[in-house]
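Repro:
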Amino acid sequence: MAQNLISLNFADPELAAIDACLTTLEQKFAGFADLSPAERKSLSKMGDKSEAFCRQTLTVLAQNTGILPPNYNLAEAQTDLANIDMLRPRFARLRALMEKADDTEVALGSDVMSAALEGYAQLKVSGKGAGLDALRQQIGARFAHASRKPAKPA
């Protein structure tokens, strides 16, 4: 096999430990938001440019609480901002782990695809007359293309 981007060998106790950690994370994240795509799209978002605006506004409002209507919950907005500050480093770590997970999945899949293509090529060359023709044709259906020529009028 020519390509081997990654080799992993997990024992059952290692997989059980990973699963236990994921279960703990799922439990700790139970209170986190779970928005639908439509909800996510409809919300106003605090991006990099608007974050300074939000911080300054909350600071000014905290210094001038007398101008706020009774139903304005400044404390909740301040708590939300503090939670963002506390969670951001953890979210960055989670994103980095997910990138590694995604890269690992891609690398493993590429290794498998490369091995399968190499094996299929070997079947085409060495499998003739060895009773493998039907099997080779069956797995080769992945490469079958529909005709691109327009049908001739009758």
